[in-house]
């Protein structure tokens, strides 16, 4: 697709043209917000970033902060494949070699690296924030600083409580354009409990154990929508390739694998932690299916007509943005990737009316089960 006209972020660190990936024809949202601007302007005004500072940027949405600070060669850590991809593309389109920046998936250990300045975009899940703060604390230099940032509506009392319980005394800035900064002073006398993730729970009724890293959907127990879909999984001896699309900790793929032992199972998620969880979960089952684990944007990169069954409990948000655009994209990708006669089987909240979308894409959609809250729909590639 030809790139939409990218928009320009202008701060004390320079002017950069930035896009959100994947590119969409009529993108209404820009690749940064007032919290990114507030942070960058604060760093410049207070002279906090000095040559030679070792900087770690955590949870940068589309690379606005990483690109702006690129001259300082920060490291960037994210749990999102899409954030990492966007950052790489935005570095490249601003003439910066992505290889000059360490782009670190959340599942990569920080090893013996220590940072003078850690900039943490407040993530959607508190569990992820708790995990990240507990981990990062061990990677600060002696006078290292942590600054959190986000939109006011994304920062709750519990967010600040986590900063003060894990890092140390915490205060916030005044709000500017509905954005806020969080200043936490590292306190070495606070107990260092480390992260409590990953955790495991038992998949009741199926005899499997499920692994969840901190940023995984429904991390402590099986989601009730997923449970309904598990009760309606197809079994066919001619399924060769099954995809658990947006796999989270991988319950759908693993039960589908146990029912269809001849099938190869693809576990795909845009969260690195989800993919790591699905891999740990599946490997612990001892099932003999061939299995493939992919951190990526849905079925992007899958050949046309290359899979037989796609299972999906579609996401309804990407980072902080809520909407059905990701589900819509996944349904279109599934239609392309399915072999003729293959099917997409999903679970969704009744009120989301996914069957209307599926009918438009597949020409058919059948509700095969439902309860008070959820529907299970199958759509067949013709
Ligand atoms: C509602 S959760 C379902 C998780 C799991 N299948 C279950 O049923 O417990 C949706 C999943 O889609 C993932 N996701 C969101 N956007 C994605 C994308 N563009 N490509 C792949 N996965 C994505 C999320 O990270 C999340 O794990």
Give the tags.
29% strand; single chain; Rossmann fold; 382 residues; seven-stranded mixed beta sheet
Notes on the protein architecture:
The protein is of the alpha/beta class. It has 2 domains: 7-184, Vaccinia Virus protein VP39 (Rossmann fold, 3-Layer(aba) Sandwich), CATH 3.40.50; 199-380, Vaccinia Virus protein VP39 (Rossmann fold, 3-Layer(aba) Sandwich). The chain contains 10 helices and 20 strands. It has helices spanning 34-45, 64-68, 81-93, 126-136, 157-166, 224-230, 251-259, 272-285, 325-337, 354-362; strands at residues 7-11, 14-18, 55-58, 75-78, 102-105, 115-121, 140-151, 170-172, 179-184, 199-203, 208-212, 241-245, 264-269, 291-295, 307-312, 317-318, 321-322, 338-349, 366-370, 374-380. The longest helix has 14 residues, at 272-285. It is globular and about 65 Å long. S-adenosylmethionine (SAM) is lined by residues 217-218, 223, 226, 246-248, 251-252, 268-271, 274, 297-298, 313, 315, 318, 326.
User: Count the strands?
Assistant: 20
Residue runs with pLDDT of under 50 for 5 or more positions: none
Helical residue percent band: 25-40%
Can you identify the CATH class of the largest domain?
Alpha Beta
Judging by the overall fold, what is the CATH architecture of the largest domain?
A: 3-Layer(aba) Sandwich
Rounded average pLDDT: 95
């Amino acid at each position: 697709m030809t790139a939409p006209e990218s928009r320009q972020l202008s701060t004390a660190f320079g002017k950069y043209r930035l896009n959100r990936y994947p590119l969409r024809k009529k993108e209404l949202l820009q690749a940064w917000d007032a919290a990114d601007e507030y942070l960058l302007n604060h760093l410049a005004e207070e002279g906090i970033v000095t040559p030679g500072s070792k900087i770690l940027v955590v949870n940068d949405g589309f690379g606005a902060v990483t690109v702006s600070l690129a001259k300082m060669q920060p490291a960037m850590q994210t749990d999102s494949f899409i954030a990492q991809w966007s950052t790489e593309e935005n570095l490249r389109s601003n003439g910066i070699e992505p290889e000059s920046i360490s782009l670190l998936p959340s599942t990569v250990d920080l090893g013996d690296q220590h940072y003078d300045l850690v900039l943490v975009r407040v993530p959607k899940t508190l569990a992820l924030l708790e995990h990240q703060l507990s981990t990062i604390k061990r990677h600060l230099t002696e006078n290292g600083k942590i600054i959190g940032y986000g939109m006011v509506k994304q920062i709750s009392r519990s967010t600040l409580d986590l900063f003060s319980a894990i890092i140390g005394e915490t205060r916030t800035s005044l709000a500017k354009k509905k954005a806020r900064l969080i200043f936490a002073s590292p306190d070495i006398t606070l107990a260092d409990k480390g992260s409590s993730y990953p955790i495991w729970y038992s998949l009741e009724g199926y005899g499997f154990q499920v692994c969840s890293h901190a940023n995984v959907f429904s991390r402590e127990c099986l989601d009730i929508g997923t449970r309904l879909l598990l009760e309606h999984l197809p079994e066919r001896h001619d399924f060769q390739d099954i995809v658990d699309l947006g796999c989270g900790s991988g319950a759908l793929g693993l039960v589908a694998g146990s029912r269809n032992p001849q099938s190869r199972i693809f576990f795909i998620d845009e969260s690195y932690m989800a993919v790591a969880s699905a891999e740990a979960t599946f490997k612990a089952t001892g099932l003999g299916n061939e299995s493939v684990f992919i951190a990526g944007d849905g079925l992007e990169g899958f050949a046309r007509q290359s899979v037989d069954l796609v299972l999906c409990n579609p996401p309804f948000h990407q980072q902080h943005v809520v909407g059905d655009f990701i589900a819509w994209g996944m349904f279109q990708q599934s239609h392309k990737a399915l072999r003729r006669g293959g099917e997409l089987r999903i679970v969704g909240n009744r009120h989301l009316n996914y069957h209307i979308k599926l009918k438009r894409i597949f020409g058919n959609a059948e509700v095969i089960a439902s309860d008070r809250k959820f529907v299970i729909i199958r759509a067949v590639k013709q």
